[in-house]
Amino acid sequence: MKVKGQRSFIIGCGCTAFIKPRGLRTTEDMGLEAGTKALLDAGLTYDAIETAFVGFCYGDSTSGQRALYNLGMTGIPITNVNNNCSTGSTALYQANNLVKSGLVDCALALGFERMSPGSLGTNFPDRPSPIALFNERTKELEASMTAGSNFGPGAPRMFANAGQEYFEKYGGSIEHLASIASKNHKHSVNNPYSQFRNGWTKEQVLQAPKINNQLTKFMCSPTSDGAACCIVASEDFVHAHGLENQAIEIVAQALETDQPLAFDGRSAMEVVGYGMTKRCADKVFEQAGFREGEGRDQVGVIELHDCFASNELITYAALGICMPDEAHKLVERGDNTYGGKYVVNPSGGLEAKGHPLGATGLGMHFYITMQLRDWAGPMQAPALFEGADKRGKYGLIHNIGIGGAAVISLLRRPEFYKPGGEDGRIRLGYNHAYECRSVTHADVYKVKSKKSSAYVLEHAKL
């Protein structure tokens, strides 16, 4: 697969804490915080941004404009994005494509969400849900499973059935799901942005209230409020602004949607996007120059879409980091955590960190960017930069949404990366990779447009 266009880099990123959905923050102020942190990180004002994509699922039209107008009303194209749980990465995908095409040199992707407590539901009960066919298909497939009929809310039921299919095909059990969930909750203890930092043990995970036959409460991602932002730029822009000390290259990126196999394959794993993820991962590694099936051993750290522990289990093989029948064995070996072959979800993953739909994918890119800068502190994956190649290992991001879309990104330090000098930590006044602080009006005034002052900023609540 020939990759067209110029190289692209994440030069700035920012994140809010992901919190319980209690209506304590607006999407405007969360978006302003994440955007301000990303601009401070990159040492830019909003005037440098040539276009923006803003992702959210639960919000009125033009919510993206409302959030960004706090930084300036500069007339740039602002496009609002909704792609279910992969919304944030889809916004980044669009921003990245414009940079790679050469149409712009600097683009911003912002994602935020203000959610309601409890399981996901529709905001439009007067019409059929776009994922109704997926729900119907997974229930039909339960008849062919040894475990039989399941129960519980639609989303966890779909992913639980996918886990059950894996168990019946390859082995493994709920014990493996508990190990995955406990691993993620332990990782989250080191993440101040995380919604839950309890560090639940495997036994506590198993003893938590049952959501369905396969999943307990602590194996499921919570609904959350939060925001995240990434700024993408061309290589010329990186050099012109002296960002060689923190720019991380988006080596490859792809977005994949469903094929007929999702319904025709008689597979609960296919219903939740196993094949979609596999095709997307194969495209990304091919884009990066690897031959079929190769390149995974050069990945050191991964943020993947563990909306439920069962999805993390089946995603290992879909990404190609193990054979299809070895995901539960990878868990047993500890090859998904510190000291193993890969560090998967060092942030705590969706299960612990939280899952504000529009922000989730951009938050994943925030964490992997910080890993590859070697700024992640207590979350830092070891041995990423050992070996002859000073660029070190790759970071992999996987973000998926039912209905459906999968976005996968492969990041790495560029060959010109050179730590030292003033960087985002100095500009923010602290290391925002693992310190979570709010922004001030003074921070916003540093980065807001100098060409167009915005009335709305005067009404921003920080």
TrEMBL record:
Domain Thiolase N-terminal: 10-235
Pfam families per the UniProt record, alphabetical: Thiolase_C_1 (PF22691), Thiolase_N (PF00108)
Thiolase C-terminal domain: residues covered: 274-382
InterPro entries listed in its UniProt record: Thiolase-like, Thiolase_acyl_enz_int_AS, Thiolase_C_2, Thiolase_N
Record flagged with keyword Amino-acid biosynthesis: no
Top-level division of the source organism's lineage: Eukaryota
ATP-binding found in the keyword field: no
Record keywords, A-Z: Transferase
GO molecular-function terms, A-Z: acyltransferase activity, transferring groups other than amino-acyl groups
UniProt name for this protein: Thiolase-like protein
Organism name: Serpula lacrymans var. lacrymans (strain S7.3) (Dry rot fungus)
Higher taxonomy: Eukaryota, Fungi, Dikarya, Basidiomycota, Agaricomycotina
